[in-house]
Each structure stands twice: as structure tokens, then as C-alpha cells.
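We store chain and fold; example below:
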Amino acid sequence: MCSAVARPVRWGIMGTANIARSQFLPGVRHVGGTAEAVASRDHGRAETYAAEHGIARALTGYQALIDDPDVDAVYIALPNSLHAEWTIAALQAGRPVLCEKPLTGNLADTQRVLDVARQTGTLLWEAFVFPFHDQMARVQATLRSGAIGELHEIHSDFHFKVTRQDNIRLFADFAGGALNDVGCYPIRLAFELFGRPHQTAWGTCVPGGHGIDLESTAVLGYSDGRSLVLSCGMNRRYDTFTRLLCSDGEMRMSNPFHPSDGDRLEILGRESETSAAAARAEPSFSAAIRHIQAVLGGAEEPRQLAIDTSLPTAQALHDLHAQLGR
């Protein structure tokens, strides 16, 4: 476990992925953290990225970031196939880690990473940020109240369009594919709401790219007959629409994962209907990073740690890939 950080948390970014630019950096700055360094295997690439995105320093090589004494926590935004290696290296060095989803590219690596997190006691989060959002708190409170009965079924989509054929998401060697990249979101949502791992798995896919599932449809079965029906893909317009089907009503979320201006949460009961803005006016990563920084500052106890939440998602992805023969 790391010691408390009294000053603003200094983040090191491992990799130069677009998600760091579009999601992580706005969240860090919104909650008062600092982007201390970015590391790439190509120093020129790191320098360009740092200059373009207001990061203090550029480093050559991922180990240099881990070893840097001016970095308090590490955000890993590497290809899925590299998550395990560098998450383990950071954990063993005592660096708290926020690792992009999925935590690793396969079940065995996830188990290995979680074992190291337990052994070292170093804090590790998987970058599913939606459990920290106000929207998810409202969903959970509505379900606890019984106002629309018991949750029976989740229908959840996550689609977007990949246009560049050299995108790493299209390559099996990088642990890409629709399920790994975005199908993991509905799976993580189901664990958050059902509170337990799945029991049965069925899936089918449209193959594409370089040995990956370009689109997938899947059903996960849970105890008491509950289920998740998910659709994911990288071949059509952005779509994250989700329905929570309950015994006396339903909830509809236009975006449960990264809600922004215009997204809505609708609650439809037998006698009433409500509609509310899905998100406060802040970047999607803000709430999760705010919590992590509070933990590092000694102000909060950690929650949503990977050792508590990541294995059920990894097991579900493993079982669905086995269904797909991948």
C-alpha cells in the first residue's frame, strides 16, 4: 500500500493512446491532478504527445515511468496484450495503477495480475469509471427502493465504428476484438447490478479484422433466472443504449458508460415516469480519478478495486471467447 499523498497527485501515463487524450487527461485536470509524464518506446512520439497535450515531461520506455520518483500513480493506456506485463511491473514497484479495460487480454493473465496485486498490497483499479458516476448511484438507489420491482434482465449495447484498418482493436495479436474492447462494458455493468458472476454463457459473432470478432451478440445467465443480453461491435455508429427490465417497470439509459450532455436516465414505473440528465457537467473519468486521488491522499477508503471486481468480467470474456472459438 502506498503512503498518503498530500500534494496534487502526479500521474504518469504509459502509452500515447487516444483515450488518454480524450478521457483521462480532461478528468485529471478537472479534479486537480497533474499530468507529470508520458512514456513511449519511441521518444519522439512521447515528446510530440507531451507537447500537444500539456504533459510536463516525455520519457523513453515504460520502465522509466515506473522508476520516475516524481510519479505518484500510473495510468496504463497500452494495447490490451501489454496490460499484464506492465501492470505487474508497476505493482511490484509499489506504484498505484489505473489500467485501461479490459484489465488484461485473457483470463490467465488477469488471475496473474490480481495475484500480484494481493501479494504486494499495491492499489489497482480497472478503468471502468461508470460505477463512480451519479447516474449509477441513482440506478442503484431506485433498485434498492423497490419502486419498479426486481431487476430481471439487462439489455445493453456498445457499438462504434473503426475506420482505420491499422487500428490495434482489429488485431488478435493485440487482444483486440469487439468483446474485449467494448463488450466488457455491459458485462461489468451486469456484475455491478446483479452482484455476482454469471453461470451460463452463449455467444455468436461476425468475424473480421485480423482474427477478431468485429461484432458479437451474447447472453449471460445469472442465478434466479436473471440475464444479460449484450450486443457490441466496431462496425456501426456509436450506440450505448441500455434497458434494465424489472418486474414493475424499467430504466432506460442512453449511455450508462460515458454519459455526457444530452444523455438521459428514464425511470418508467406502473404509475409514474421520470427523466433526468444522466451526468453532471464534468469529464467522464472525473469521479473515478477524484476517488483515487482521495484514497492516495488518505481521505477515503478504496472501493471498486480490481481485486474485488475484475475477475468476473475476465471469466465472462473467457467463456464467451470459447463459445466463439477464439
Summary: The domain at 130-284 is CATH 3.30.360.10 (Dihydrodipicolinate Reductase; domain 2). The CA atoms of residues 250 and 268 lie 5 Å apart.
